[in-house]
Every structure is written in structure tokens, then in C-alpha cells.
């Protein structure tokens, strides 16, 4: 089941440098593990912004929440979730 | 070059039934042609809304505009465009 | 899988009376059928507004979209969808 | 009398760990006590957000305010209240 | 139980003159009947706008909805409802 | 001359406890003095929010500003002012 | 007593030409009569928009409403009212 | 004196085809005349939208308003105006 | 050339008292100097808010920016600028 | 490929003076280097605001993001990006 997720990051400008570096490293590792597992299908940077647009493919709303809640950057993020469905014009699902 | 495009459709409730059917058929054919050509990479329905979220892969802003401007449903759409860049955590572009 | 759905209805003030009555009757029958089937778990009127707040329990985003897209009032509605997950304080899912 | 209440939580990222743990424990106990008493009818997590959607069944606006004002997390919350009424299509209240 | 209700009226500029006059007369009579009965406690015009701010004193959310839903101008209104509670500084309810 | 005033209060979560208690006590005394004098006609709590809706009856815009500017909580408030006029359906001012 | 009033005009693009010309002529005469009487102190066009920013000097909220309600363009306007007070830095009212 | 102007166009979907063609032709001629005269310095299409972003270089606010007010598409446009000033980092105006 | 400027002030609640007093004194002197020079034509307090609405009469956008940028309170302000033009109904500029 | 970019700057009012001066000097140098290289085509100050409107001419979305992400003021900015295309009325690209 697919979800589009927009994540906006706002790190405090006076954040401790070590905490910042550690958090970003853990975020990257966490994201890549889920990408390899197939649940985090796409991640794109929104040009000019500290934001990403991602596509998740998960078994349930509960699993989606579990993934997002445990993001190392979660306390610094504003997150918007859009549940996606098949589009009738999608050539992958249409016979016309 | 990737762009996320959100399209919200608002057809008049008193739209002529034949015009409506023709426009929707042309929209589907137009979309599928571009999907097959590889410029319209993804199209998803936003659950519960007459909207889609699409990912385009085009050579330029001008080409993106040309594609969207010629959508048969363009006069009935509100469109939001977000230019996308590679994300440093993307496993497709990262070596970590 | 649970979703909160807010539906705002805007009927044209000059809508044909028979069309209006028929559409409302079909909407009610459609809603009650889904309530009886257990997919439309709650429906409440938002006091003072031509709106409802509903809770759906469905198997997937695709099924949710199918239900909402086929609402007889869909062409007259603005719909907002919020995917819900279990809350750790919910006594139904917590042992504390 | 039913109310839908949306609660968004924003804890300071530098909040004292002990204060945070204590506040969350008190919040959970407070919520579960009211759930058992029947006034806090539902609590759902909004997927991907530090937010919940709840349904309260209380005797009056004053009682609703008393409950919300005394939430241990109240100083960290943004709260939106929607009074609910019976919907004519609700199978629990309709004979059609 | 008190509620603040803001009503914004938008009559079509091409509304039939007789229908308009009849609707406004019925609205006035309906409002005054409820004012005399004590449920519609205050009605003020918002200066410079086709809007009013009203205070209702009703037994329940259901009664509030019933009153508002049956306003002759309801199909032309945008309505915002705010449930009110006693304020601790109110001299009518405070002993300090 | 009547004005509706919505006041939203946002106290810092780390505010000094004594300063907070003093400020709230002064706010209450200040409000009650003006209520007794007849200029602050109504004060209601907005259910579930640290906000009030108040009705003032003052001689001028300048007097209204003087009252609000001197609220002990003014530096912590977001304030919205709506000038009110007599409504033609008000039974207190209508002979129909 | 001063008020800033922003008026945005939206005439239907298919408005009858004679009705339009008559309404605009009546609006201009009405405005100029009030300017000469001293109640409509300033009127400026907002550059690039079918809008004006005006300053009124009236005896009361009720008089302000009466003036605005009777604008020939009132049914086509969105109006925003801001009550003004003396500013302590105004050289006309300050001795510093 | 420079101004950034964003123009969003919304033509009625049932607009008369001849009127539409004539209006668009007049708009293009009008714009190009002002471009050649040097007052309309830049015009860009906002990708995916029936909108443009333009830069004007005019002698005064009054001249800017005169130009925009007389756009053949003005009745169908929403216009946003931003006055521009020299930026201290602009290499055309900086010696550093 | 006229501009309407809305300035909203947000001083930190923990601002140093001496810095605050000095900044406010400098702001007042600065404003009054420009009022006497004729460039700052009007300044009004928005009732109930730490805001003012001002009218400036300056030679250019650059001069307007220079004035506002050098306001002692500029770092604490949110500023909105609206370029104004003559209104055809203004009796000062109309012969009808 | 052209992009309009709006950058709003919000420096903390208690920012270290040396850090502030250094950051601004680096920002200016960085901007001017890109202007000289031809990628940062225009930069204008938005009158009365700590904001600029800029036009970039870059090879790709990725290059645009790289430029903006490395702005010394990036952590203090809110940035809005609008991809631009050729406008059919532009005399530089039109033969009519």
C-alpha cells in the first residue's frame, strides 16, 4: 500500500554539532535500511528546501506510523501523509 | 530531470456528458502515451480525491510546461509543480 | 485499517429538486449499506455545517478510494482523508 | 454529547528527559482513566504525526473544557474542537 | 450550554427578487422566534460585512444543529461554531 | 459601542512560576474591575483552548485599545478585534 | 473615530453592460458625497488590483456599517475592517 | 522603478471561442508593445500554470496601475504586486 | 508616490528592559523625524494589536526600503507593503 | 533553465555579532561569484522586507539545489522555488 510523505526538516541553528552529525548519520542509515528492504520506495530532495518527498510501500497505516515515528529526525520534522491508490490511467494497471 | 506534479480536477457538475466522456478518454490516451515514452514516470490517485500525484522526467522546464499545458483536462485543473533533486540518502545515488 | 474522513457538501442552490432528492436518497442507502457491512464504522454530523466526520475500516487505500469515489454526492464534496494508527494510550490495545 | 478533538503535540527538543517521561506517563494514566469512565470514547494516532484524533462523550462544554485543560500535555498542545451531532444516515439512529 | 456562531451570508447577485425577499423575511421571523424563546441569546452584525456573530444557549449539540440547519438562509451561509465554557474570571461565576 | 475580541494566550512553558502566578492574578483583577464597570460585558472560555471570546462596550476605538494594551497578559496574547453593529433582526432593536 | 477599510471588487465577467455602468456611476457619486461630508477621509487604489484602501472617520460602528452596507458595489465586494486608534508616535498627538 | 507582478489567469471554461481568441490576441499585442517600449522588462511562464511572472520598470505606482488595469485579460486575472529595490549584493550596483 | 505599510511588532518577552526602552525611544524619534519631513504621512495604531498602519509618500521603492530597513524595530517586525495609486473616485483628483 | 527563487531571511535577534557579520560577508561573496558566472541572473530586494527575489539560470534541478543548499544564509532562510518557461508573448522568443 503506497503513501506519499513530505518531510520538512527544521534543525535549531544552535544545535550541538556532534548531536547534529550523529542524528544525520543515523537518519541516513535508517533510511537506507528501509530502502533496501523495499518499504521506502523513493526519496527525492525538494530543490532549494530542507525537505524530501518520499514514497512508502507498507502493509498498513500502523507500519507507516512506526517507520515515521522512529525517524531520528522525527522531533525536528513536519510531516504530511497522503494515502495513494491505483490510478485508472496507469499503464501498469490498465489494459486500454 | 524530475518534477513532482499534483493535479486537482474540478469538472463542472453540469458538464455535457459527451464532452466529459471525450475529454476523459483523450486525457487517458495522452497520459498513457507519455508514460510509454518514459516522460510521465508515475501516476497515483490521491485516495478519496479527484486528484493525482505524478512524477515527470523531462529535459527542461519548457518541456514540462508543454506537457501540462496540453493536458485535455488542463482547463479544469489546479496544478502544483515541485522540482526534485537527488537526495543524498537515496541508495541509487549513494555509496554509503 | 482505519481512516478519518471529513466530507463537506456543497449542493448548487439552483439544483433540480428531483435530482437533489434522488441523489440524497441514493447517498443515504449507499452509506447505510456500507455501515451494515462494517466498512463505514461511524458517521457524525458536524454541528452547524453540511459536513460529516466518518471513520472507515477498510482493507486498503484502494478500497477506501473506491468507496469514496462512488458516493452519489462525490461530485459535490470536498473530502479530506487522515490515515489512523493505534494510539499507545488506547485501553483497547494497551496493557498498562 | 459528542465532540471530535484533534490534539497536536509539540514538545521542546531540549525538554528535560525526566520531566518529559513523567509528563507522558501522567498523560497516559489520565487518558486511560477517562477512557475507562466512558467520557473519552476513542483515541487514534494520526499516522506520521505527533497528534491524535479523539472522540469525547461528555455532559457539557464545561466538562469538555475541564478534561482538556487538565491534560498533562495541555501546555504543549494545539487543540481543535468540533461539536458533533447525530447524522440522519447513521444506522444507529435511523429507521430507513 | 453556550455556543458562539459566526454566519457569513453570500446571496447570488442574480437571485430572484421575490425569493430573496421571502427568504429574508422568513429568516428574520425564525431568528426572532428563537430569540424570544431564549435559545438565540445575542445577534450582532459584523460591521461592514454580510455576517453576524451570535450566541446560542441550547440543551445539546443536536439542538444547535437543528436550529442552524433550518435557517432559511442556511444554503447561502458559511457557518463557524465555537463551543463556549465558563471563564474563571467571569464575575458572574467567580467569588474573587 | 460593541466589539467582539478573541484573545489567544501562549505562555512560555518555562515561564517563572511566580511571575506566571502574579501575572494571572493581575489579569483576573484587571478583567473583573472592567466587568464591574460595564465596559467588559462578556467573557467566555473557548472550550479546549487557552483563549477567550469577550464582548466590550466602550466609547471609542481609542478606549478599546487602551484596555487591551494594558492587559497584564497582552505580551503573551494574539488578539483579533471585530467591530459590531446592531443587527436588524435583534428583537431588542426591532419592532417587527 | 477612524477605520481602515479594504474593499475588493469582483464584478461578474458577464454582467449586463448597462447595469455595470449604472452601478459604477452610483458608486462614484455615493463615495464622493461621503468624501465631501468628511466621513470618507481617504480613498486609494491598490496598484494592479480592483481594490481600494479607504480611511473612514465616523461616529460609531453602526454608522460605519450603514455606509458600507449601502455601497452600490456592496454585493460584489469583499470588505475587511480595521478599527484604528491614535499612535503614540503620531506628531499630531504627541508632545515629544 | 521595478515591480515584480504575478498574474494568474482564469478563463471561464464556457467562454465564447471568438471572444477568447480576440482577447488573447489583444493581450499579446498589448504586452509586446510595452515590452518594446521598455516598461515590461521580462515575462516568464510559470511552468504548469496559466500564470506569468513579469518584471515592470515604470515611472510610478500610477503608471504601473494604468498598465495592469488596461490588460485585456485583467477581468480574468488575479494579480499580485511586489515593489522591488536594489539589492546590496547585486554586482550591477555594488563595488565590492 | 504613496505606499500603505502594515507593521506588526513582536518583542521577545524576555528582552532586556534597557535595550527595549532605548529601541522604542529611537523608533519614536526616527518616526517623528520622517513625519516632520513629510515622507511618513500617517501612522495609526491598529486597535488591540502591537501594530500600526502607515502611509508613506516617497520618491521611489528604493527610498521606501531605505526608510523601513533602518527602523530601529525592523528586526522585530513583520512588514507588508502595498503600493497605492490615485483612485478615480477621489474628489482630490476627480472633476465629476 | 530559469527559476524564480524567493528567499526570506530570519536572523535570530540575539545572533552573535561576529558570526552575523561573517555570514553576511560570505553570503555576498558567494552571490556575486555566481552572478559573475552567469547562473544567478538577477537579485532584487523586496521593498520593506528582509527578502530577495532572484532569477537563476542553471543546467538542472540538481544544480539549483546545490547552489541554494550552500548559501551561507540557508539555515536562516525560507525559500520558495518556481520553475519558469518561455512565455509565448515574450518578444525575445516570438515572431508576431
TrEMBL record, chains A, B, C, D, E, F, G, H, I, J:
Has keyword Lyase? no
Q: GO MF terms on file?
A: muconolactone delta-isomerase activity
Keyword Isomerase assigned to the entry: answer is yes
What residue ranges carry the coiled-coil annotation?
none
Span-the-membrane segments of this chain are none
Q: Which family would the database say this protein is a member of?
A: Belongs to the muconolactone Delta-isomerase family.
Q: What is this protein called?
A: Muconolactone Delta-isomerase
Q: Which organism is it from?
A: Saccharopolyspora rosea
